[in-house]
Amino acid sequence: xxxxxxxxxxxxxxxxxxxxxxxxxxxxxxxxxxxxxxxxxxxxxxxxxxxxxxxxxxxxxxxxxxxxxxxxxxxxxxxxxxxxxxxxxxxxxxxxxxxxxxxxxxxxxxxxxxxxxxxxxxxxxxxxxxxxxxxxxxxxxxxxxxxxxxxxxxxxxxxxxxxxxxxxxxxxxxxxxxxxxxxxxxxxxxxxxxxx
Length: 196
Hints:
It is built from eight helices and five strands. The N terminus is likely disordered. Strands 1, 2, 3, 4 and 5 form a five-stranded antiparallel β-sheet that branches. 50% of the residues lie in helices and 13% in strands. The protein is α+β, with helices and mostly antiparallel strands. The radius of gyration is 20 Å and the shape is globular.
């Protein structure tokens, strides 16, 4: 199941490069002025974006999160239809109206649309970093965002190395107590929601 969330068919590098050029080549700057290297093979390809490793001119290792085509339209259409179906279902089956399916679907749609705005995502990451600093939390880390190279469709962040938290065997190679790491992470996330 996790693989269906994290991995989709990758887009060609030609498409990714086209988005990068359209989004980042401004004021006479080219991709070559910003990056010394961009990996053509993606690190990951999910439903909303594809991620490539790169190196900035200053030597920083980064990842480029590049939005896939028509993501906003697909989300609006698919969840708009689901919203309509849930309204009809509630109308046809008044006994399930208490579940308020339509507002739940609408909330999911709004949150997923937020996922397509990488400027908002960059802001959320920076807000989370401020939370970590304010609470002196050193158990969790968030990547540095490079706002000067980030747009609504491209997010440039510090490359962090690690393993998936759903891969317990891999986690055991790096920490003594994977369950504690998961608990610390979830507690930090919940605290950030409550205190933000």
